[in-house]
Amino acid sequence: MKALFIGGTGTISTSVVAHCLKKGWEVTLLNRGSRPVPDGVENLVGDIHDEAAVARLLEGRRFDVVGQFVSYTPEDVERDIRLFSGKCGQYIFISSASAYQKPIAALPITESTPLVNPYWAYSRNKAAAEETLMKAHRETGFPVTIVRPSHTYWERSCPVALHGKKGSWQTLWRMLQGKSVIIPGDGTALWTLTHASDFAKGYVGLMGNPRALANAYHITSDEGLTWNQIYQVIAKALNVELHAVHIPSDLLAHWGKEYDLQGALLGDKSANVIFDNSKIKRTVPEFICSVSMAEGLTRAARAMADHPEMQTMDPEFDRWCDRVIDCYQSIQNVLRD
To answer: Measuring CA to CA, which of 95, 191, 273, 316 is 20 to 30 A from 151?
Structure first.
């Protein structure tokens, strides 16, 4: 069985590629060639946004599965429909669980929960891309499967509630320095984290699976921890005391426009999320998450602390945190007086 992955070297797709190889798939990647690929993987160097060049690169080739990890808009998937119609048995689009209704009207979240997110253009674009693909399926039989990950991570990036433009290390660094870190709201929103190696089991189980055609699936852990608990686990892994400052999410969204915190918080991480994964389990009976949230968080935090190459400093975000904390504490002091 032959699979083409567009991208293939990111947080989610790296684990998917590894699991595919373990299952005996013949894997080809299409990307810009900026990162190394595993042994046994063919790497086609090209830019998916250059449609004509990609069409030439793939001329005469057909794949059982095309996995798209780097499309974000209806225009992106319209291009893919042109490129891959009649040339693949299944096209799997990575959407996002952030596209689900915000505020959430009912839990648990199922695949039939409405896709309505007024806070985040990223999520709305993903939902619109889904509709474009399903329309192509209805009208021409385009063989689409939609996958909606939630917060999926691996050891190269420890999950936190908010971070700057250079990743999560600056938040861990603040913990290690004994500085305060910001937790949105009162920290009691329930969040779900899924290790990429677990996500890959569900994704690969959908590949070449006829039951998956014209269906959407979220693939997440069944676990949930509050943001307070998540930060406590990280602090314990780093062997430091947690100094948390709780700030309302709407204030953070207003003060953090340069970090798109309206989308990242009001449209995602400040919401309570519990996912019903019964659909993916019915379609892929072997899907089970074996990395607990506490174990995965501990591994990720320690890996970043132990590997300097993962430690990208973000002094701009650090200064922003200091300013926001000082401003919020000054407001609280005025109100108390």
So the answer is: 316
